Amino acid sequence: MAISTATMTVSITESVTINGADRGNSNSFTLPNIHEVMERTVTVPASEITLISFSTAAAGGTFVEGDVRYIRITNKDASNFVMINVEGDASTDFTIRLDPGVSYQIVSTLGAGTGVVDYADISGYTLEDLTAIKSTADTAACDVEIMVACV
Question: Is the pTM of this model over 0.85?
Fold first, then answer.
């Protein structure tokens, strides 16, 4: 039996009122033909672990780099931050701090074969394929929620 596909809708809403005026916005986009979704919560210790891997072939915990359309990582901890390390295939990576309750997204809407191929470069403008996303908790273990959607 073939897995059916669906359209995924992602919405981001900001709500703030200053001096009685609504300054918030709502934006959304759709990702068609999604047929693979992984959602899980992982406890990140104060030592580095791999959250997601990417390659040209699927395997346990590894996603096909050209098929990835959406990644969301949310720090579910109430008081501690985690560091998210995004690694590329040329040994170039970047790290961001993800504060309590905050999410980080990677989105690829350009269609077939893009995904996380030629996606990021910290040192210049030569984009490279992502190979992994790793994480480390700052002071104490933190739960992070991970969502990955692929075509």
Answer: yes
